[in-house]
Write a structure and sequence with these properties.
By secondary structure, the protein is an alpha/beta fold. Helices cover about 35% and strands about 20% of the residues. It folds into three domains: about 40 residues; about 70 residues, membrane protein fhac (Ubiquitin-like (UB roll), Roll), CATH 3.10.20; about 130 residues, Rossmann fold. It is elongated and about 140 Å long. This is Cell division protein FtsQ. One of its GO terms (cellular component) is plasma membrane.
Length: about 325
């Protein structure tokens, strides 16, 4: 039997492990050294990098060469470190979320209290500016709606409030001063920042005139004397209630009838009289047509009926209209 010829040994294998002998009979086996064989140290030639200095194009000592597989133990250690870091970050996020969840109510209460406190601070600052700032002091008084009343006299009556902060104006004093003007029925004040007060007046409107001695007095519906004149005022009827005064039932009945008449019909009334609440009569301008009104009850209905009947009559017809029973109007020639 032929013995297989051994493989030719390479120089590198011989250098590292020594020559391997064959198992031929009578041959002596050479045992390879148990540890790695350290190659002899060679003196670097000129221009060759010294030992310990990485040669150009080669990785430094301890750095795995490109393409060389990293040991599994090192990969496992790196993976474990990454997992630990990831777990630590997740734990921190969880703890932060838990703190937020358990402190949500207290944070909400704190936010509410801070908001309320901020609102009060702002309101206090605005109030202090409105009360103490000279920029909001009263400097101008304007009067609106004055016809029979002198606007200058009204301004003079309230000038004591000039220089006062708009928030501290004494409206009681203004009321007392304007009460001295009998022609003012009512008024409304309006503040126009930064320093103006506007007074809107509603004057008393005369509803009729009464004779008082040698003078004529214009009265409003409440019986307040609006104006006096030596001659009869134009545009208002002459009221005759006999010996009754402006507080009587007769005067109130006359006023109620006058206020119920349409404007066109009211302008035609010349005189109106009553001694009780049930015997109101008046005459129209022109030829002297008369109207028997009766009581002041259902005055609005009577006024509408009378306006229609008067429109159907000739202006120069001397007649008497009886609307005391508005359902059956009686027109009687005079």
């Amino acid at each position: 039997m032929t013995t297989p010829e051994p493989e030719p040994e390479t120089t590198e294998k011989r250098r590292l492990f020594g020559r391997r002998s064959t198992d031929a009979p009578g041959a002596t086996r050479t045992t390879a050294p148990s540890g790695p064989v350290v190659p002899p140290t060679a003196t670097p030639a000129q221009g060759t990098p010294a030992q310990g200095t990485p040669a150009q194009g080669r990785p430094a000592q301890g750095t795995p060469a490109p393409g060389r597989r990293v040991p599994a133990a090192a990969q496992t250690e790196r993976s474990a470190r990454r997992e630990l870091a990831r777990a630590a970050r997740a734990r921190k996020r969880f703890e932060k979320d838990e703190v937020k969840r358990f402190t949500r109510r207290s944070r909400s209460r704190r936010t509410v209290w801070l908001s309320v406190g901020g609102v009060f601070v702002v309101l206090g600052a605005l109030l202090a500016v409105a009360v103490f700032s000279p920029l909001l002091a009263l400097r101008t008084v304007q009067v609106d709606g004055a016809s029979r009343v002198s606007a200058a006299e009204v301004q003079e009556a309230v000038e004591s409030q000039l220089g006062t902060s708009l928030a501290l104006i004494d409206y009681g004093t203004i009321t007392d001063q304007l009460a001295k003007f009998p022609l003012i029925r009512s008024y409304v004040t309006e503040l126009v920042p930064p320093n103006t007060l506007v007074i809107h007046l509603v004057e008393r409107a005369p509803v009729g005139a009464v004779v008082n001695g040698a003078e004529f007095e214009l009265l409003d519906p409440a019986g307040i004397v609006v104006q006096t004149s030596e001659t009869r005022p134009e545009g208002v009827p002459l009221i005759d209630v006999g010996t009754e005064d402006a507080d009587s039932v007769a005067y109130r009945s006359v006023v109620e009838v006058l206020l119920s008449l349409p404007a066109e019909l009211l302008a035609q009334v010349d005189t109106i009289s009553a001694t009780t609440k049930d015997n109101v009569t008046f005459s129209l301008r022109g030829v002297g047509q008369t109207v028997v009104w009766g009581s002041s009850d259902r005055s609005d209905y009577k006024a509408s009926v009378l306006a229609g009947i008067v429109a159907q009559q000739e202006p120069d017809a001397l007649v008497e209209f009886d609307v005391s029973a508005p359902g059956s109007v009686v027109v009687t020639p005079r």
